[in-house]
Design a protein that fits this description.
Helix content is 22%, strand content 42%. By secondary structure, the protein is of the alpha+beta class.
């Protein structure tokens, strides 16, 4: 009997660890009717259209999203509503592809909603299907939504005060002029978080602009957890870059880290310019000081 009980405990523990609790990882932002979501490194939008879910109505919605007659359209049986799924890929760099999965879904009132998933790297069909059903059924809790204007953020389960000078440049991407910038996502597993920061690093390197002058692995404390980060310094001297032009800086220091924090698998990329307000003792600007400590 003890052996049998142990077996059930192990099975239950395994199933629980594998459970896909998307709401625990999800953040959302309502921007004038178009809703943005962040989870597992995905950028997701949902938007409702008054078109009917028929050939005539869908044709207009397809055109708005550059979906052509030749694009393959399939029905996803795991979606609780009539739907069509279109999947497209585009090359971002030599080693990176961006996947765009469009779910065209018939709403209960016979109109159309489009849920658009954008992801660099591996996609997760189960997470996408769960998200589509939650969105169409209007089951995303209010506590998952963040305000447009921010004075604080929920970072991996804790509230971090920011003051009045920070703003979203994208969902889960915070810009604090001369105080630092960061973006993050909460993932289903640590492998996904590690892939996300590696993809972001590779995409940044592939863009025309600054050149990498330094790249190293450093020891840091990330939200109380001892771990390692990849530190990369980009040089923008003499480069006509919009990114550098806005800041006035010449060198950008970026920390890429993926770690389990408070039972959440977090990918986080933090950066600052050489002309930001850098504390000479911590060697970090105020925003990054709230998240990491250098060793």
């Amino acid at each position: 009997m003890k052996t049998l009980n142990l077996f059930f405990i192990l099975v239950f523990s395994f199933c629980f660890s594998q459970e896909n609790n998307v709401l625990e990882r999800l953040s959302a932002l309502n921007n004038n009717g178009k809703i943005w979501y962040n989870i597992d490194g995905y950028s997701i939008t949902s938007e409702k259209f008054n078109n009917s879910f028929d050939e005539k109505g869908l044709k207009k919605v397809f055109r708005k999203h550059q979906i052509t007659d030749s694009d393959v359209k399939i029905k996803d049986s795991q979606i609780n509503f009539n739907n069509l799924l279109v999947s497209k890929q585009q090359k971002i760099s030599d080693s990176n592809f961006q996947t765009n999965n469009y779910y065209f879904v018939e709403n209960p009132d016979q109109t159309v909603s489009v849920v658009w998933f954008i992801k660099n790297g591996k996609t997760d069909k189960e997470t996408e299907e769960k998200m589509v059903n939650l969105i169409i059924e209007n089951k995303i809790p209010e506590e998952n939504f963040v305000p447009m204007k921010i004075t604080s953020i929920n970072f991996a389960g804790i509230k971090i005060e920011l003051g009045n000078s920070c703003y979203w440049t994208f969902l889960n991407t915070v810009q604090c002029p001369y105080l630092g910038e960061m973006n993050w996502s909460v993932h289903r597993n640590l492998e996904s978080a590690k892939e996300a920061i590696e993809n972001q690093l590779n995409i940044t390197k592939s863009k025309n602009g600054g050149k990498v002058t330094s790249e190293e692995i450093v020891d840091i404390e990330f939200e109380g957890v001892q771990t390692k980060a990849k530190k990369v310094i980009y040089d923008f001297k003499g480069v006509a870059s919009a990114l550098a032009g806005m800041s006035g800086g010449k060198n950008l220091t970026v920390y890429y880290v993926a770690e389990n924090v408070r039972n959440r698998n977090v990918s986080c990329v933090m950066s600052f310019w050489n002309n930001d307000q850098i504390n000479p003792e911590t060697k970090l600007p105020p925003l990054l000081e709230k998240i990491i400590k250098l060793k």
